[in-house]
Amino acid sequence: MPGLDGADPAGPAHGPDDAADPGQAEPGVWQEEPGVDGHGRALTRGDRGRGSAARSARRGSGRSGRPGRRWAAPGAEQAGPGGAGADTDPEAEAKAICLRLLARAPRTRAQLADALRRRGVPEETARAVLDRFAETGLIDDEAFADAWVSSRHLGRGLARRALAHELRHRGVAEETVRRAIDRLDPEREIATARELVARKLAATRGADPRVRARRAVGMLARKGYPAGLAFQLVREALEAEGIEADDLGPSGDP
Asked: Basic and acidic residues bias: where (predicted)?
């Protein structure tokens, strides 16, 4: 299946799987933008005002005609007369931060909230802006989770356990995680695991059977597949090559 990666990764990024490796971009796979960690750490105040999204957010903040609260971002320096102003309306700033991040990659509410907190946006203002974004559909954790599961399973061959771990790591609520994971067809998951095993064994053909089995099982484990299922599929694949595989590992139902 195009996009499946059967090779052993250098190491897990978020736990026992190789689910999240931001340094390995793959065609068709949902990746965070390089240089941006999903929490706004790479953004600087020099980004403010760039792009139509930020301008739109600032225009929308003053429709009432009433003077808004002024807020000085942490570490800001007065630029002096005629220079860039250090004081910024917190609501406009929060909108601009969120719009910049969403323009680069889909984000969960928790990721955006973390970005706003790190930029010093007042909690009450951040909550109000995020509520508004959720009402308009700019933030939708349910849709994010569904798209993440589909993309990461098809592109990287990740199983339910690894997918759930990635979603929790991004702040998706447990109930939303369960619903997204439950939509992954169990038969499709097993078929994907078989394809991964076939690719891995093909890459190690000629090596000692136990070494081949260990590498294939380890690859599936890092992608979140149960150990029982992994040994079963590897054993079946080796036996299809005419290799006795009864003593390669655990047996029985996954």
From this structure: 36-50
Dihedral sign (CA 145, 147, 148, 154): positive
Whether the CB-CB separation of 201 and 164 falls below 8 Å is answered with: no
Dig out the tokens for 142 from the structure: 């349910």
The contacts of residue 117 (CB under 8 Å, 6+ apart) are 123, 126
Check which CATH number belongs to the domain holding 131 and give it. Answer: 1.10.10
Query: Smallest Cα–Cα separation from 251: which of 223, 222, 213?
Result: 213
The CA-atom distances, in angstroms, between 167 and each of 76, 161, 216 are: 34, 10, 25
pLDDT tens, per residue, the chain with 254 residues: 445 554 433 333 333 334 444 334 443 445 544 444 444 444 444 444 444 444 444 444 444 444 444 444 444 433 333 333 456 799 999 999 999 999 999 999 999 999 999 999 999 999 999 999 999 999 999 999 999 999 999 999 999 999 999 999 999 999 999 999 999 999 999 999 999 999 999 999 999 999 999 999 999 999 999 999 999 999 999 999 988 876 665 544 33
Q: Quick check: 48 and 88 in contact, CB under 8 A?
A: yes
Distant-in-sequence, close-in-space partners of 202: CB < 8 Å, separation ≥ 6: none
How many folded domains does the chain comprise?
A: 3
The Cβ-side half-sphere exposure at 92, using a 13 Å CA radius, reads 22
Show the tokens assigned to 147.
């798209």
Residue 230, token pair as written in the block = 């992994």
> By residue range, what is the domain housing residue 112?
87-139
